[in-house]
Design brief:
There is one protein chain. The protein is α+β, with helices and mostly antiparallel strands. The protein folds into two domains: 37 residues; 47 residues, no CATH class. A two-stranded antiparallel sheet has the order 1-2. A two-stranded antiparallel ribbon has the order 3-4. The longest helix is centred in the first third of the chain and has 29 residues. The radius of gyration is 30 Å and the shape is rod-shaped. It starts with a helix and ends in a 22-residue tail after the last strand. The structure holds zinc ion. The site of zinc ion has 8 residues, from loops.
Length: 93
């Protein structure tokens, strides 16, 4: 008779363990889903531009606009008398 109770206890323990595992797996599946979607939306909000000097792509907000072209850093601006002194303003024609 004691063996039946022992067997019942083992079965209940296994069922409880499986349910705990399923619940924790469900939480792991549900939690990360909203994060990539919102990150994708944030990335899509700002268009990417290409540096006219080295060709690297960067968000338009981080780029330096100069004569209709974009540059990743001031040192990539074309040399010459046109280089502005304070220069990160957009001076498109
Ligand atoms: Zn560059």
């Amino acid at each position: 008779m004691a063996r039946i109770f022992l067997l019942l206890a083992v079965v209940l323990a296994v069922v409880w363990w499986l349910r705990q595992r399923a619940a924790s797996r469900h939480e792991h599946d549900a939690a990360p889903r909203p994060a990539p979607a919102s990150r994708k939306a944030a990335e899509a909000a700002e268009p990417m531009v290409q540096c006219a000097q080295c060709g690297v792509h960067l968000p338009r907000g981080d780029a330096i606009a100069w004569h209709g072209l974009h540059y990743c850093r001031r040192s990539h601006l074309p040399d010459g008398p046109e280089v502005p002194g304070q220069g990160e303003s957009d001076t498109r024609p």
